[in-house]
Amino acid sequence: MIEAENISKTYWRGATGAVAALKMISFQIGPGEFVAVRGASGSGKSTLLNILGCLEQPSSGRYRLDGEDVARFPDKQLARIRNAKIGFIFQSFNLLPRTTALENVEIPMVYRDGVVDRRRAFCSLQRVGLAARAQHFATELSGGEQQRVAIARALINNPALILADEPTGNLDLNAGREVMQLLCDLHNEGRTILLVTHDDAVAAYASREILLRGGEMISDRQRASELRSGSTEGVL
Amino acid sequence: MKSVKLASQALRNMRRYPLRTIFMMLGVVVGIASLAVLSSVGEATKRETLQRFKNMLGTFDTIMVRPGGGRSRGMPTLVNVPPTLRFEDADAIAKELLEIKAVAEMQTAFDVDIKYRDRAASPVVIGVTPNWLELRSEEVQDGAFFTDDQNASLARVAVIGSDVRAALFPEEDPIGKTLRIADVPFQVIGILKSRGAGPAGGSLDNLVLIPVNSAARRLFNRNFLTMVIAQVKDPEQGSAATEKVAALLRERHHIRPPALDDFTITNPAATMTQVSRAGSTLTKILTGVAAMALVIGGVVIMSLMSIAVSERWKEIGVRRSVGATRRDIVLQFLIEAALVALAGGIAGAAIGESGTLLVARMQGLPQILVWRPFAGAVLLSVMIGLVFGVYPAWKASRLDPIQALRS
Hints:
CATH architecture of chain A: 3-Layer(aba) Sandwich
Number of domains of chain A: 1
Number of helices of chain A: 7
Order of helices and strands of chain B: HHEHEEEEHEHEHEEEHEHEHHHHH
Shape of chain B: elongated
CATH topology of chain A: Rossmann fold
CATH class of chain A: Alpha Beta
Largest interface: A-B, 30 and 28 residues
Oligomer: heterodimer
Number of strands of chain B: 12
Number of domains of chain B: 2
Shape of chain A: globular
Structural class of chain A: alpha/beta
Number of helices of chain B: 13
């Protein structure tokens, strides 16, 4: 599903010159995989996620998504891919303020074809267990609830790829566990999940772990899978 | 479809951020309201001024000749004009010039005491030829105007204006009564129809008309005229006729350039054109002022929206991450700007039109609602919103989604 080939990203920052955020990263991720990208802050993991999410272009290298070389796509096509194929989940939830949970979930539908199916948005909320909160404003919800609304929003256009950037970073243990459980469910449905985290306990949910340090990939390995299959008790 | 959804989201946002919306609307509201008030008031003032000049000038197929050269002010009377314009001049104009259909002679005097029993007044006393009535488009309301025969026989008859009637005959019918003009008895035979206000706002009905020959021989003992009104055959040729009259008078008065004319000719049609032009200029200036206010309203939208864009970085980032193109972001902010301006325009137009009614009532102007500006104002405000929304919308769309999300 994802083919990254020698991806590099260099930022030009005024007088200090070039900063290499990513150096020659190559890997492939098949459909239905659950991959954690782990590394300390500044290791380039967020940059990698942004590139894989078509929010940013690599400075060099090739990125194929479903066989399409998206690295040189124009803005309009990248937006279409983000809309249809990718669901984002952010550390800070990124819900719109003064907007209800339901309206937040509806937003990706506007940019798909302009047709907003309110019932489908409601089902998506139901799916994350927040049907009762549909008419609440984002700011009236707890952190865990906000993140679940964000997940409902990510799912609304039924994307094959879920990209999560520190999804539990702002949550307490219980809320974090619920969110990870939801991600596991999505994985069990056959979606491809790519998770960025610095937390080994969160990375433990994944079946494969890519380790970054200073913009370089230092390991890519399969992980033991006891967490994925079901029980999440005692973890985190 | 997408635009419709974005519009409904924009409306929702306007409702949920009422303060921001109101501040953004405010400039347009003020601009449109002042545009509506000022253009309506300007238009009403112009029409009122024109009407007053029409009241004063009477008809437009006439030219007026008064004695004395240069710039003379106010109504020419026996005491403030030189004795250069003669009855013979009027006869010559009537007989020798083919362009002229008819000529009325006038002798005007102020400060003449008029008495009826124990009541007194001092209106303008004007000696006129009977055709004055037709040349001035005046009408007799009661009784009759004097005839050529009465003029020739120096009859002591008078036609009075409605103000004189009110002053001297508050409770009786003036027709047939005898009043004394400077102690000379005259019989009232008619009452003029009221003409309303003149350009300065004063009444045009405070006058007494008597035959010009009676005035010259029985009352004032003067053999010159204060004004000659000449009716031209073809109103289109007013300027040419004016030249002909001037040439004839110069010849009769032995005036050779560079000597200056001892008479002044005015052409009411030309005067009206000037007045009308002045009125239009006033309307234009007022409209210009209001348009300026509107532009300021647009700038308010632009600056507040630019600030809103920086506050909404995160929203822009989220929208981009779920599939909004740069174009979608531009569209969203343009729609918001247009809707805010539209709401401002409608509110402003409503306020402006009620303001117009208020001003019209206070100033005693005819209550003219100028609907073209109303409809135009609403359209204009949408355009203002679009034009001044372009910059913030463009700014929003250029935002890097990564940075927007990180903010």
